[in-house]
Known about the structure:
The protein has 284 residues and is mainly beta.
Amino acid sequence: MRYLTLLSLLTAGVAGAGVPMAAQAADRPVAIRFAGALGGAPFACGRPTPGIGKTGATVVASDFRFYVSEVALVDDTGKEVPVTLDQGTPWQHEDVALVDLRQGSGPCAGPGPRVEVTGRVPEGHYKGVRFTLGVPFALNHVDATVAPAPLNVSAMFWTWQYGYKFLKVDLTATTLAGRKNFFALHLGSTGCNSGGPGQPPISCANPNRPRIDLAGFDPDTDRIVADPAALLTDSDVTEPAGHDMAAGCMSAPSDPKCLPVLPKLGLPISDRPAEAQRLFQVAR
Length: 284
């Protein structure tokens, strides 16, 4: 389906804090807008949504958030032009931004929504966007209790060794028999090796930071729709966790529930190769 949007740009004459006047003359503000969907319908917490997963289950969503980093636009020559993110907000820090698609009420209570990533780029015409889904390694294993916003959100953090949940989708599915089943999709790094007792990891075997490349994106008119149902087409969201199994996919390479999901994010897992990512699509 197609989505309509009015993409508002920040006023070009407003000077960014600490940006030299010469740079302001050559740069312009940009807002990269996101929208949530579930099964092709606009995302709405607490509203039953049918047709999810391979059994066509009805689900109720209670969370949908993700971190993006290394955001860049693509110009007419195919050159990747980094976006310098705005600072001084609770949603962006250094090169990382938190996108929160919750409505801020009901099962999605919280400070959301936050549906745009804002910053500055050189003047020019752009026809694509690229970003990394996740938090860079240098910031992924900090102490979240003292980290600056948006890296201080406890619900988006596992432990200092595993780091952040790059993507957090929480659903409750109803079976045909009326049984409720919680299904979560939490993407993050796994196989992280610590430098020693009480030390943060020095590497992770599975970084799980897919690079998203969306062609045909005009930042002045388009937005990016994220629909997690596209990742679950081969998953049974009504299947209970069972003994020693996560309630859904928690990124573990040994978890059979992750096998049909992670490749659709553009990530290899076990003996399954990466596929073209399906979570994000351009909409006008």
